[in-house]
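TASK: fixed-backbone design
INPUT:
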């Protein structure tokens, strides 16, 4: 919900003007491809195409979108000059050579001499307690800043890091999602109900709503934004 709120906040019409073309999305770790529908609905008339890359093809991946079966480390081989918006959400922590992928992407995109943007949603260290065995790693502001500084020096790009969520979102997820899921796994009962699970969705939404405009020093997610120098991401 935090990530989708961010996607919903982008002014895609303005972004199309800055990219000087319709938006062509390339999604790393696309899974079922449901983000294709999300981006298409949000960007509306600014949408041109969606391509998803993953190590397998989900049986529910929409046939109207393009799918590539490959590792993220090989992504630069699949980029064409139309691609101008690279995305990932809860994906790069599963990629063994994540920084190499971002560096290769940035190198290829800058070599095209066309405006571009990358937006990567990455779990912060707090997510270790929420997702437990999820992925290779979690991210800190320090290691993302180091990566951003290296990209700026080598490729002269814009880099910004936006925190998503904070303590309210963390505790809501831990109590209402993580602990109940672990309990169901331990007692092997899919119908098990956590004693405090009443109006779960409402509680989660309320927790997130309280933090939409905060810039927490200890967020649940980080948003890493990399773009060519002439892009100034605008929000609604």
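OUTPUT:
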């Amino acid at each position: 919900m935090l990530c989708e709120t961010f996607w919903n906040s982008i002014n895609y019409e303005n972004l199309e003007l800055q990219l000087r073309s319709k938006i062509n999305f390339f999604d790393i770790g696309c899974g079922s491809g449901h983000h294709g529908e999300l981006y298409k609905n949000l960007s509306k008339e600014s949408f041109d195409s969606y391509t998803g890359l993953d190590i397998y093809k989900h049986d529910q991946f929409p046939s109207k979108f393009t799918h590539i079966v490959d590792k993220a480390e090989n992504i630069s081989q699949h980029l064409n000059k139309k691609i101008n918006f690279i995305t990932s959400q809860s994906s790069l922590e599963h990629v063994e050579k994540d920084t190499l992928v971002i560096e290769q992407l940035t190198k290829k995109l800058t070599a095209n001499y066309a405006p571009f943007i990358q937006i990567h949603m990455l779990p912060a260290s707090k997510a270790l307690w929420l997702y437990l065995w999820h992925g290779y790693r979690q991210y800190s502001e320090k290691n993302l800043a180091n990566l951003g500084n290296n990209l700026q020096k080598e490729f002269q790009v814009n880099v910004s890091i936006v925190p998503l969520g904070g303590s309210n979102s963390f505790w809501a997820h831990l109590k209402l999602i993580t602990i109940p899921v672990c309990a169901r796994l331990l007692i092997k009962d899919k119908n098990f109900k956590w004693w405090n699970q009443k109006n779960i969705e409402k509680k989660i939404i309320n927790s997130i709503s309280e933090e939409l405009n905060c810039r927490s020093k200890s967020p649940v997610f980080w948003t890493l934004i990399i773009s060519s120098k002439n892009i100034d991401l605008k929000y609604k």
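COMMENT: The chain has two domains: 2-166+214-227, 167-210.
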